[in-house]
Amino acid sequence: MLDPHERDAIVAREALLQDDTNYWALVEIFVGRKSSHIALIKQAYHSKYKTHLDQDIINIEPPHPYQKIPVALSTSHEAHQADVSQHTAKCDARRLYETGEGSPGAIDEGLVLEIFTKRSIPHLKLTFSFYKHIYGHDYTKSIFDANSGEFKDALKMVVKCICNPPNYYAKVLFASIKGMTADTGAVTRVMVRRSEMEMDEILRVFKAKFGVETREAICESIPSGDYRDFLLALANKTVAAF
C-alpha cells in the first residue's frame, strides 16, 4: 500500500541488511526505474533510515565483486545525459568488443563500469542492441566465453535484466516459486513491482519457458493462506486486464 518509491526504499534496505547482501534486488531497482524515481527512492531511504543509499552500497562489508555494478548503476542515474546517442552507443559497443572478446583475456572491468556509470539504461540497451547487430550475437555470449569470475556472472545477469526484462523476471519468478533460490522475497518483489509495468508479458514468457501458468505454479508450490491468495490476486488481476 506504499508509494512505489517508498516500497523500493524498503526493499533496498532489506537487501542490504541480509546476511548475504541481495545484490539482485538492488540491481532490479536501478535498472527498472527512471532517474526521477531513483531520486525519490534515495530521498525516501534517507528520510526513513537517516543514511544515504549510495554510501550504504559502497560500504558493504566484506567487499564483493557484485557490489561494483549497483554502485555504477546508481551513479549513472545522476551522471548520464538524458539523450540517447546512436553514435555513442555504437562506439560503446565497439569498445566493449575490443576490450572483451576482440582481445585475449578477461573482460575489462574498468571499461564496463565506466560505461555503466556514465550511460542511461536506455542508452545501455541500445548499446547491447548495436553489439548484436555488429557482431552477430548477444553481448552475453562474449561474457560467457570470458574468464572473469564472479564479476562476469553478475554482469551477465545485469545485461539480461536490461535487454530482456520479461525473460529475466520470468526466470526469477520461476526459481523463487519453486524454491530454487534463497531469495524468498523475489516472488513478492516481482509480482508487485512489475505489475505496474510488463507483468502480462512476464506471465506469457513464464508459460512459454516453463510450460505452466504462473497461477498454477503458485498453487503447486506455495502453501495455502493469505500470502498465496495475495499472489494469485495479483496474477489474476493482470490476466483480467488483457
TrEMBL record:
Superkingdom: Eukaryota
Residues that, per the record, bind Ca(2+): I177
GO terms for cellular component: cytoplasm; plasma membrane
Keyword Oxidoreductase attached: no
InterPro entries: Annexin (IPR001464), Annexin_repeat (IPR018502), Annexin_sf (IPR037104), AnnexinD_plant (IPR009118)
GO MF entries: calcium ion binding; calcium-dependent phospholipid binding; phosphatidylserine binding
Biological processes, Gene Ontology terms: response to cold; response to heat; response to salt stress; response to water deprivation
A family per Pfam: Annexin
Keywords annotated in UniProt: Annexin, Calcium, Calcium/phospholipid-binding, Metal-binding, Repeat
Protein name: Uncharacterized protein
Highest classification ranks of the organism: Eukaryota, Viridiplantae, Streptophyta, Embryophyta, Tracheophyta
